[in-house]
């Protein structure tokens, strides 16, 4: 009887005993070495700053830097300064610099080789022989987010069969309200070759409305205005006016506000009681530009002015893209590494070039260059002195510094992936990240023997 009671009491205690000794289930591991859950919130990095809200550059300093960018950086086009008559040799130079047939085999989205005949037909559509010796400058404005292309074609082409992420005919994108100068037209009449502030490339004609030069540039200076401070914002859907319905506005896009709109007057069938009344460019059936009212919901992430350039705000803006899919040349309705950096800074009214090749050498920024003579230790020391918002460049890629943890430097960047070598392993581990991610910089490897740090070409610092 005494044995049975003892056995019974042991059986009662057994579940508690087992539960106490059983290890707690581990947290889901993060694929990136050294990355913790806390690192995926902007508050973690902001809390580590001693002066998170100190202004890095004032609006006046930003204006001075932007003026220096427009006059001193060859990749920036000052559209307002272009002459009323465009020389044909200049136009041919722009087109020829971009629309050059590839010298190696390309594949379509189905993995089939793009034939030489296909490429020749695309080249013929460029119609370079139709460029006149001179022409009047035709000014226009983009009305919807639209792709900028190497050639006047929607055909997507890739380096290899099965690789369908990086379309080699995709260059960039323009957003609603971006001004352009139309300098050429494709032979089929469906495409314009345009010069924008940061790029010259092909765009589908349906996304560009032509109008008066002064009216176009005045629209971009009007006040009051709103700046999109979220990753994107969308106008309200309206069947009454499709031209302003569901228009996607990207981070940093500025739109004028119709502040005196009567509160009892409808905008496209809806009272503006819970929305901002803004004005957007619209393309008419004849291709001409008009400006029409639209509603931007009050729930949209917008501000009544450009954000103050502080380290805390830089981090907050960068994290609004966290997890977005990587989009080479702004494909996939997303952005790539340089577009990610430039759109963050656009929300502060800071102008930087479009591509990493131009960003990394821009003389208008506070540049720290590196050469083959710089040691690994010197590069690491420079990174440890980097501040949030500093841009770190390797060939073809840019990363934005957000802070430091235990001697390592962390960045947020839009990347196809990274490689690293676990301790004791013989081979690199390749992480196909394909999006906006947070990673430490020091473990990153370019190949089995070269740390990524040793390939840094420059650090650009947007600060005094």
Structure write-up:
This protein has 464 residues and is α+β, with helices and mostly antiparallel strands. It is built from 10 helices and 26 strands. The strands form 9 sheets. Strands 19-26-20-21-22-25 form a 6-stranded antiparallel beta sheet. The chain has a 5-stranded antiparallel beta sheet with strand order 9-8-7-4-10. A hairpin with an 8-residue loop joins strand 23 and strand 24.
Brief digest:
Residues 1-20 form the signal peptide. The protein has 464 residues and is of the alpha+beta class.
Poorly predicted ranges (pLDDT <50, ≥5 residues)?
1-28
Class from helix and strand fractions: alpha+beta
Please state the CA-atom Rg, rounded to the nearest Å. 26 Å
Q: What's the arrangement of strands in the largest beta sheet?
A: 19-26-20-21-22-25
Number of strands: 26
Number of helices: 10
Write the CATH homologous superfamily of the largest domain: endopeptidase domain like (from Nostoc punctiforme)
State mean pLDDT (0 to 100 scale).
93
InterPro entries: NLP_P60_dom (IPR000064), P60_peptidase_YkfC (IPR027017), Papain-like_cys_pep_sf (IPR038765), SH3b1_dom (IPR039439)
Protein name: NlpC-P60 family protein
Pfam families: NLPC_P60 (PF00877), SH3_6 (PF12913)
Family: Belongs to the peptidase C40 family.
Element layout with pairings:
Elements: H1 2-21, H2 42-47, E1 55-57, H3 59-72, E2 85-87, H4 88-98, H5 116-126, E3 134-136, E4 138-142, E5 146-149, E6 170-174, E7 179-185, E8 191-195, E9 200-204, E10 208-210, H6 213-219, E11 225-228, E12 232-234, E13 248-250, E14 254-256, E15 275-283, E16 289-297, E17 302-303, E18 309-310, H7 311-319, H8 337-346, H9 356-359, E19 366-369, H10 376-384, E20 391-394, E21 397-405, E22 408-415, E23 418-420, E24 429-431, E25 435-440, E26 458-461
Antiparallel strand pairs: 1-18, 2-3, 4-7, 4-10, 5-6, 7-8, 8-9, 11-14, 11-17, 12-13, 15-16, 19-26, 20-21, 20-26, 21-22, 22-25, 23-24
């Amino acid at each position: 009887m005494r044995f049975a009671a003892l056995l019974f009491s042991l059986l009662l205690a057994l579940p508690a005993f087992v539960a106490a000794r059983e290890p707690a289930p581990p947290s889901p591991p993060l694929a990136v070495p050294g990355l913790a859950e806390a690192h995926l919130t902007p508050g973690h990095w902001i809390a580590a700053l001693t002066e998170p809200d100190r202004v890095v550059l004032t609006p006046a300093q930003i204006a001075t830097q932007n003026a220096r960018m427009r006059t001193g950086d060859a990749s920036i086009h000052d559209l307002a300064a272009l002459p009323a008559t465009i020389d044909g040799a200049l136009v041919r130079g722009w087109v020829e610099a971009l629309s050059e047939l590839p010298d190696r085999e390309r594949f379509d989205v189905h993995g089939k080789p793009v034939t030489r005949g296909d490429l020749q037909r695309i080249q013929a559509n460029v119609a370079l022989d139709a460029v006149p010796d001179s022409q009047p400058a035709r000014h226009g404005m983009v009305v919807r987010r639209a792709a900028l292309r190497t050639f006047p074609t929607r055909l997507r082409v890739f380096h290899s069969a099965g690789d369908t992420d990086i379309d080699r005919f995709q260059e960039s994108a323009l957003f609603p309200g971006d001004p352009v100068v139309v300098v050429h037209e494709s032979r089929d009449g469906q495409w314009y070759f345009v010069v924008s502030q940061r790029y010259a490339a092909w765009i589908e004609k349906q996304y560009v409305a032509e109008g008066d030069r002064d009216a176009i540039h005045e629209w971009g200076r009007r006040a009051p205005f709103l700046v999109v401070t979220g990753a994107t914002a969308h106008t309200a859907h309206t069947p009454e006016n499709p031209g302003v319905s569901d228009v996607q506005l990207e981070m940093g896009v500025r739109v004028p506000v119709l502040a005196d709109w009567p509160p009892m007057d409808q905008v496209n069938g809806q009272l503006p009681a819970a929305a901002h009344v803004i004005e957007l460019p619209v393309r008419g059936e004849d291709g001409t530009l008009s400006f029409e009212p639209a509603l931007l919901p009050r729930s949209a992430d917008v501000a009544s002015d450009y954000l103050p350039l502080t380290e805390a705000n830089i981090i907050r803006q960068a994290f609004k893209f966290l997890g977005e899919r990587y989009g080479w040349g702004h494909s996939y309705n997303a952005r790539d590494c340089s577009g990610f950096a430039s759109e963050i800074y656009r929300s502060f009214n800071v102008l930087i070039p479009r591509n990493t090749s131009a960003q990394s050498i821009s003389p208008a920024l506070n540049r720290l260059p590196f050469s083959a003579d710089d040691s690994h230790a010197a590069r690491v020391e420079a990174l440890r002195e980097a501040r949030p918002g500093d841009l770190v460049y390797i060939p073809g890629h840019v990363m934005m510094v957000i802070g430091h943890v235990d001697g390592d430097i962390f960045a947020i960047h839009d990347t196809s992936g990274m490689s690293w070598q676990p301790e004791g392993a013989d081979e690199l581990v390749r992480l196909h990240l394909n999006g906006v991610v947070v990673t430490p910089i020091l473990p990153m490897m370019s190949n089995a023997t070269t740390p990524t740090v040793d390939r840094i070409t420059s650090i650009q610092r947007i600060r005094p």
